[in-house]
Amino acid sequence: MIKRLTSDFYNQSALILAPKVLGKLLCRDIDGKIDKYRITETEAYYGEEDTACHASKGKTQRTKILYQKGGLAYVYLCYGIHSLLNVVTGKQDHPECVLIRGAGNFNGPGKLTKALQIDRAFNYENLIMSKKLWLEDDGFSYEYQTTPRVGIDYATEEYKNIHWRFQLK
DNA sequence: AAAGTGATCATG
DNA sequence: ATGATCACTTTG
Questions:
Q1: Is the CB of A99 under 7 A from strand C?
Q2: DSSP summary character for residue A162
Q3: Where does residue A87 rank: exposed (0-12), middle (13-18), buried (19+ CB within 10 A)?
């Protein structure tokens, strides 16, 4: 039984969703050709109090999308080269998201978006409605492990050490 | 090990 | 206006 994920799913907290997004199918329609990839690695970014979260310094032009309710894609450019794909989660006015770091055979969030031809044009794409990019649940069951997040040296110790990175075993 | 790359945000 | 920063990848 395959079903597309709806707003009920995305409105949950990022901390609950990050492990749930694992094992789901990331679906991309490129000119009528649909590709689906098993999501293998995610990270949670949760609230202004999370010093690794982009919204930790408050609402700006760039981060205001995180304050929307769940279901939007947040795509931003990192290191001038890579587009990184996130899913905005949770309730209106609370900033949180899940970063999709790996799917299919791609490891590395930059490689993933390159392969799927996802760029900043997908910022604000609605994953509940979109015909080009969405998530599906096919009932796949899995085990996962948690580790500290990577690439967040600028965060405080408390948040650097917290296990908010989730990988399929 | 190190560089390349450009949007973003805080200064002036 | 300018400059520092950065949730990465590739190359040697």
A1: yes
A2: S
A3: buried
Task: For residue A60, say whether its CB is under 7 Å from any atom of strand B.
Answer: yes
Closest nt to residue A45, judged CA to C1': C7
Q: Is the pLDDT of residue A146 over 90?
A: yes
Which residue has its C-alpha nearest to nucleotide B5's C1'? Answer: A80
| Global confidence as pTM | 0.94
What tokens does A114 get?
């390159």
Q: Is A148 within 7 A of strand C by CB distance? A: no
Burial label for A131, CB within 10 Å (0-12, 13-18, 19+), is exposed
Q: Tell which CATH classification among 3.30.565.10, 2.102.10.10, 3.30.930.10, 3.10.300.10 matches the domain A3-168.
A: 3.10.300.10
- On the question of pLDDT at A107 being above 90, the answer is no
Does A1 score more than 90 pLDDT? no
